[in-house]
């Protein structure tokens, strides 16, 4: 399992050009072993939208619902052991 940093998750879901093809390949290669997303990333995205530092074509609720359904995505709870679950990818 890899754990995606918030901006990497956003770039992957939104097919942003800042995410290199090599990094895209790494993420896709981990779809079967798991792609961890911290619940804190959901909160961070909501705060960025609230402060107008991030915008989506859809509502934040719709974006999160879609993004959490991507193949391999596993929403990680907030606990001290989350960091031990895998390699953080940022």
UniProtKB/TrEMBL annotation:
InterPro entries: PIN-like_dom_sf, PIN_dom, PIN_Sll0205, TA_system_RNase. Residues 2-86 form the PIN domain. Signal peptide: none annotated. Gene3D superfamilies: 5'-nuclease. It comes from the Bacteria. This is PIN domain-containing protein. It comes from Planktothrix agardhii (Oscillatoria agardhii).
């Amino acid at each position: 399992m890899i754990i995606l940093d918030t901006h990497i998750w956003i770039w992957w879901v939104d097919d942003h050009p800042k995410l290199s093809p090599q990094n895209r390949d790494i993420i896709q290669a981990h779809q079967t072993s798991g792609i961890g997303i911290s619940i804190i990333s959901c909160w961070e995205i909501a705060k960025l939208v609230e402060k107008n530092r991030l915008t989506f074509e859809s509502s934040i609720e719709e974006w999160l619902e879609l993004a959490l359904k991507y193949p391999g995505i596993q929403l990680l709870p907030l606990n001290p052991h989350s960091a031990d679950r895998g390699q953080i990818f940022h």
